[in-house]
Structures are given as C-alpha cells and as structure tokens.
Write a structure and sequence with these properties.
Layout: H1 2-22, H2 27-54, H3 60-81, H4 88-123, H5 125-152, H6 157-177, H7 185-211, H8 217-238
Helix pairs in contact: 1-5, 1-6, 2-3, 2-5, 2-7, 2-8, 3-7, 4-5, 4-6, 4-7, 5-6, 5-8
Length: about 240
Amino acid sequence: MLIVISLATAIFTLLGGLFALKFRDKLHLILGFSAGALIGVAFFDLLPEALELGENYFSTSQITSLIALGFLVYLILDRLILPHSHHHDEHCENESHRGRFAAGSLSFHSLLDGIAIGLAFQVSSAVGLIVTLAVLTHKFLDGISIVSLILKDGGEKKLAFQWLSLASIAPVVGIISTLFFTLPQSALALILAFFAGFFFYIGASDLLPESHHAHPTRWTTLATILGLIVIYTAVSVAGV
C-alpha cells in the first residue's frame, strides 16, 4: 500500500511540473495561480493542521507567532542573504538563488507530506488514507509552483526539471523514513506553522507581485483567486 501511495505522490508532483513547463509561455497566469495555491495551502492546510496537532501542547497565539516568525525569517533571507541586484549578471545569479531557495522550501514541505502520510498509517489505515487524499490533492499544484518559481527567477528548463524531480522524490523518502521513526505531534505542529509563514511570504511577496508585472492584472487576479478556490475545495473534499 505504501509503495503505491509513494509512487502516486511522485507522479502527481511530476505531472504538475510538466504542465507548468509545457505552458511556460503563460507563465504570468501560472504564477498567479501558484500564488493563490501557496497562500491557500498556508491558510487552509498548514495553519489548521498546525493548530489541530498543537492544541494539546501550545496556545493559538504561540502557533500564530511561529507562523509570523517563519514569515520574518524568509523576509530576512530574501532581503539580506539573497539581495536583489541592479547589475544584470548579478541579478540573474541572485534571482536564481532565490528561486532555488523557494523551491527547496517546497521540496522540504513535500518531504513533510510524506512523513505525514507514513505517520498517519501508523495510527490506522483509515487515517492514513484520509491524509493521503489530502496530500495528493495538492501535489499536482506543488509541481506547478516549483517549476514556476525556478522559471520566474531566470532558471532554465533543465534546472526546473531537476528541482521538480527532487520534489517528486521527497515525499517518497518521507514515507519510507517513517518505517524507522515516529515524530511527536508537537514537533510536527511547529514545523507546519513555521512553513506556513514561509508559504505566506513566497505567495504574497514573491509570486503575486511578479505575476502581474508587465501583464494585465485582470486575468492574473482571476488565476490567483482560482488557485485559492482549488486548494480550498481540495482540502474541504479531502477532509470529508
């Protein structure tokens, strides 16, 4: 069962990334959709999960404070560690680093998705299947987001595919790793909250402004709203 689920997570991620690569000429719309999807994942998936898992260990304010900390950490990394440059060559290099860092964050999130699936099956098969459904509903969108981030920041198609491959393997590694350990709910709650802050920043401060730069805002705004709706619907259906 876990082998089949591992393959499914990898395939869904790959399909999403290949979709983004095929329609890269519509990158502004894909970026707008990805922005909505990432913000939606933070609002409708990571935040509720962090609050639910941490309710017996932390207060709501502690969880939300960690989300804010994640946002600030990414802000500092984005503005100070990976600064923007006005020189063309340096600009391309720095933007590429920023894209890789963002893609790396999403890949680590994919690893956590795999761990969540594996830990859920340790509880019961029914819980495991529910969590699997929830993860699969946004793996396709994760693939789109990773490719969008790399292409947006000047990365080549080859680099985008490399990161897509890593993100596809990550949940498989996560699922397999749970055969050898268990992760406390309190620790998982903190990790999810921290990454919610990351996703808020990437979606709202990175992808969203870039999506309507030099493009009509009407269609990109609709694409962003669609991304939010898709994630909300997927999470709601998975939670039924």
